[in-house]
Amino acid sequence: MKILISADMEGATGVTWPADVLPGTPQWERCRSMFTSDVDAAVRGFFAAGADEVLINEAHWTMRNLLLEKLDERVEMLTGKHKSLSMVEGAQRADVDGIAYIGYHTGAGTEGVLAHTYLANTLTGVWADGVRASEGYLNTLVVAELGVPVILVTGDDRTIEDAKGYAPEAEGVAVKDYVSRYAAICRTPTRTAADIESAAQRAAPLAVRHTPQSPEPHTIEIEFDAEHLVGAATVVPGVEPAGERRVAFTSPSAYEAIRAFKAVTTVVSSAVEEQYG
Q1: Could you tell me if 104 and 170 are in contact, meaning their C-beta atoms sit under 8 angstroms apart?
Q2: Nearest-10 crossing angle of helices 254-269, 135-146
Q3: Which helix (H) or strand (E) holds 45?
């Protein structure tokens, strides 16, 4: 049994504020240990339940946040940027049986601690085939196409509710309860680590790789907070205006859709000015 962990930070224990997840800030340094604790708890749970291998893919910002030296010695970690499948890099490997989303969050324009989709701001909504889509939803389209089931999700309580829409069989652990985008009722790391470890043990039997799905088209629609970003986004081939502050594109597979989405967000982020967006 080989488990892949996609590790994001906004949904980690104790995280409620932008500085908690911005590399280089004192708060980020403090929260890295709690983020690492969440991930390591999942690792211990999976190994306790019989996993042979666990691979962590760092999925937050610079993708250099976890404290490798604090993790279980049996684990391996993929760290750094510019990966083909970004947040779910590694799922394309034929030996991965299941994936866990640790530290995830809700999508742009919805309730949730530090809610966003790929970009911290700028995007006010993302829809996949007409369904409002968080990062978890988008990533699940990709791993489902590869035959890899989502078996565990951790984050705030709104994230666990969101996950029921794209991974209804997965175990879920709420490490904090949403109050506002920048406030939450938080559990202590000791408590959340125990909860995550237990959930990972329960989730491990769900790690049974399925037959990969036949690729099918997906239409992605993106709404921005400023009209000029429509012009920036449509530089990407296949991306067209789709209404006020919106663009849309259709890709032949989830793999191509997530790569096109990443291209759009990269281009758009370069068109955002510091003060006026």
Answers
A1: no
A2: 150
A3: helix 26-48
